[in-house]
Amino acid sequence: MKKVFLTAFGLVALGMAPAVAADLPARTYTKAPAPYAPIYNWTGFYIGAMGGYGKEDTSGIGALSGGFAGGTVGYNWQSGQIVYGLEADAAWSDIGATAVIPGLLSVNDRIRDLGTVRGRIGFAVDQVLLYGTGGFAWADNRITATAGGVSISDSHVHTGWTAGAGVEVMFAPKWSVKAEYLYRSLSSENYFAGVIPGGVASGTLNINSGQIGVNYHF
User: Fold this and answer.
1) What sign for the dihedral angle of Cα 92, 90, 118, 86?
2) pLDDT in tens, 52-82
3) What is the pTM of this model?
4) Each residue of 22-35: pLDDT tens digit?
5) Residues 170, 178: contact at Cβ < 8 Å?
6) Where do the domains of the chain lie, and which CATH numbers do they carry?
7) 96 near 63, Cβ under 8 Å?
8) Which residues are bridge partners to 68 per DSSP?
């Protein structure tokens, strides 16, 4: 009797198994998130135009200040959301100042041209790039002194370093606009060494500048 009962129970269990399996929830699989795929790709060459305003970082009388405008060329490499780049710019400048001793002497100091060669590294979120930048800086500076109707001039190229940060935005598939801050520290040079023994040291030129620009990407 016991054997018959166990056999009957086994048959019932086998008959119920498909129904029980049908009632069990199906196993679901969750796919791993897809790797980040940027909509905008910053890799490639670009050229552009830029302009801005610079002011000497000094509290003394006769601090240099003024505008500048010029061009830019560069190249970016993008890896995921990290963007690396090299950029060079050069600009005509009217950053200057004039000091006057009435009736005796007038001295005009003006940066006529300036530029940089910099590395860039940034973080891109599709069409927006936030970056830091730094590298080599130069400026062509001229000092003119006038006394008694006679003027003498001397010019030197100051070299040094620059560092700053900026934001660039792709507003069309091949066009971007940027805003940038740069601090430039340029070496001291001796002026009028042919007239004054030993010359006159200009002192280090430290320039704060803000600039905007537009770039075309190839």
Assistant:
1) positive
2) 999 999 876 679 999 999 999 999 999 999 9
3) 0.79
4) 454 555 555 655 55
5) no
6) 44-217 (2.40.160.20)
7) no
8) 52, 93
